Structures are given as C-alpha cells and as structure tokens.
Amino acid sequence: MIDRDTGGLCGLIVLGIPMHSAVLTGPFPLLEPYRQSLELSRVTLLDTVAPNGESWFITQALRRAAEFGVRGVVAFADPVPRWRETPHGWVLVKPGHIGVLYQACSALYTGLATPRTLIMLPDATVLTARAAAKLTAGERGARGVTARLLALGAPPPPPGQHPAAWLPHALAEIGAIRLRHPGNHRYLIKVGGPRQRRKTVIAYAGRPYPSTTTPPGAAPGSSTRRIARPRP
After folding, report:
1. Which residues 6+ apart lie within 8 Å of 74 measured at CB?
2. 40 Cβ partners below 8 Å, 6+ apart?
C-alpha cells in the first residue's frame, strides 16, 4: 500500500508458503497447494492508515491474487501474548489476537489449529522445531540458528561437540522457556469471483467467531517452564 500524498510505503501483505502443505490441503483439499492456496502470513500497516484500511487492503490484495490463480487463503491469529525478558523484567511486546481483522473480511472461522509446545527465546521469538532440526542435523541454515543463539548469550559450541549435545546447554544458558500453546485461531477465505468461490471446497466446518482473547496477565508463569541444564 502506497500513500498517495507522500509516495511512501504504508502497508504490506505477504501471501506465503507454510511449513507444511497440510496447512493448505487440510482446509482446501481440491486446490493445488502453493499455487491455488496460500497462507496469509503477514499484514502490516502504519498507524496512520484509516481504521478500515486493513480489511480494504486485504480485499484488494486477494483480488490481485485471484488473477494469478489463487483460490483459497488460510490465515492465523495467535491468541497467546508474547513477552520479552529484559534486565528490568518482562515486557509485553505483543498481545494475544483473535483475528478481528479476518472477521471484518467475513472469513470463515474454523477453530483452533493444533496445540503444541514452543521454545520461547528471551527476545520473544520462537525457536521452531524445524530450526532446531537444522541445527542438530547439520543441515543448510544451521549456522544461522547457531548465530542466533550466540547473539542471545549462549556459549560457543565446544570443539568437536555435536550440535545436538550443545543445543540443550545453549537454551538453558540463555533462559529459554517451554510454552504450551493452545493453537492459533484459523480463518479461511475463498478467493476469486462469485462463480470461482462457489467451486472452492472447504473441508472444515465453520464455528462462531471468538470474542475474547487471552488476557495479557502476568509474565510467563504457570504455562511455562525454564529449560533445565542437562545433567553431566
């Protein structure tokens, strides 16, 4: 989205590829994943954009996507607040969301996605299972994961130590936390004209929109636990 007055960028939408194709083929079984179905992975607008700008922007972006053959989009809203640990205590960096933006677009709500346990790093980001696997298996991208942990204060891997043995020590040293996540709110949007939307099959049943989110509450507590240092 470009500001007509200043010519500056004021909004961005990313239609991306999720980690697993099942994220797309589950709700849209008859669409070709990564081509006819995509994930709405990012929506970012400046605060100066009008209140209805988000839903208008999504509508316009999906109209353009339809011209390239996209027929279905999956969008998620994370209900769990994210906290960052600082020298002065925990700071809330992101409240939980229920997907009001997608509700404004009349998206179909299908409930919570799969619950899982996350490894939360002190900077409020997640060390995904895929990132951990890259490190422990020595795959492409492992150096980037190592550098990320070192930047957070992890000790360098001892010479000759296998990454799988170093990772638990690194996570414990930086104060990483295991967080039980209930799953993200999942929304589905059919893309295209009326005739195209009628042809798109959705395998999941719709549910009433959620109306409340997880309150910010206190810093990580009962639902989290520090990763302990491995025994020698």
Report:
1. 18, 23, 24, 27, 28, 37, 38, 39, 40, 186, 187, 188, 189
2. 13, 14, 15, 58, 73, 74, 75, 189
Instruction: Find where tokens 């150096």 sit.
Output: 143
In this prediction, residue 232 carries a pLDDT of 54
- pLDDT of 97 higher than 70: yes
d(CA 23, CA 28) in angstroms, rounded, equals 9
Hey, which residues does 119 pair with through a beta bridge? 127, 178
Average pLDDT for 28-32 = 98
Identity of the amino acid at 104: A
By C-alpha distance, which of 75, 26, 32, 25 is closest to 54?
75
Please give the structure tokens belonging to residue 7. 């010519």
Rounded Cα–Cα distance for residues 145 and 147 (Å): 5
Supply the pLDDT for residue 90.
77
AA identity, residue 106 = S
- Whether residue 39 contacts residue 75, with contact meaning beta carbons closer than 8 Å, is answered with yes
Q: What Cα–Cα distance (Å) separates residue 29 from each residue in 88, 142, 226? A: 49, 33, 39
The DSSP 8-state label assigned to residue 175 in this structure reads T
Residue where the block lists tokens 């009001």: 100
> What span, in angstroms and rounded, lies between the C-alpha atoms of 106 and 87?
43
| pTM for the predicted model, two decimal places | 0.84
Of residues 174 and 232, more confidence is placed in 174
* DSSP bridge pairs for 109: 187
* Predicted local confidence at residue 223, as pLDDT: 52
The SS3 of residue 178 is strand
**Nearby residues of 20 by Cβ (< 8 Å), 6 or more positions away:** none
